[in-house]
Amino acid sequence: MAEAATTFGSCCEELKEALEGGDFEPLVTVGPDGVIYMTVGLVDLDEEEPGLVDHPLFFCPFCGTKLQTPEEVRAKAGAEGDGEETRDA
Questions:
Q1: What global pTM score does this model have?
Q2: What distance, in Å, lies between the first and last C-alpha atoms of the chain?
Q3: Which positions ≥6 away from 77 have C-beta within 8 Å?
Q4: Residue 80: predicted pLDDT
Q5: Rounded CA gap, 30 and 10, in Å?
Q6: Tell me, what's the pLDDT at 84?
Q7: Cα 72 to Cα 42: distance, rounded to the nearest angstrom
Q8: Average pLDDT, stretch 9-35?
């Protein structure tokens, strides 16, 4: 099976713009593990700001291009948890 897109944002201009937006906290980001995530919710933390709940994107939300597979996400994320991640806002 061919590997999914390695350069996120190369499939369409909309995803590229969403990833490069610098004037706001993006809802679509590439994590330090090389997995592309979309923020799907907020969670209250003991800190001042809420945490963001992220879920891996398997397909581009703009053009439908396959971005990564569940297996690739597990491999990149080190098979920890269920593929979800919480990051500080």
A1: 0.72
A2: 36
A3: 33, 35, 83, 85
A4: 54
A5: 13
A6: 46
A7: 25
A8: 89
What the block records as the tokens of 45 is 């933390």
Kindly tell me if the per-residue pLDDT of 85 is higher than 70.
no
The answer to whether the Cα torsion of 66, 69, 70, 74 is positive or negative is: negative
Question: pLDDT at residue 30 above 80?
Answer: yes
Provide the greatest CA pair distance for the chain: 45
Backbone angles phi and psi of 16, in degrees to 5? -60, -45
Q: Which residues of 1-89 form beta strands (DSSP E)?
A: 28-30, 36-43, 51-56, 85-88
β pairing state of 28-30 and 36-43: antiparallel
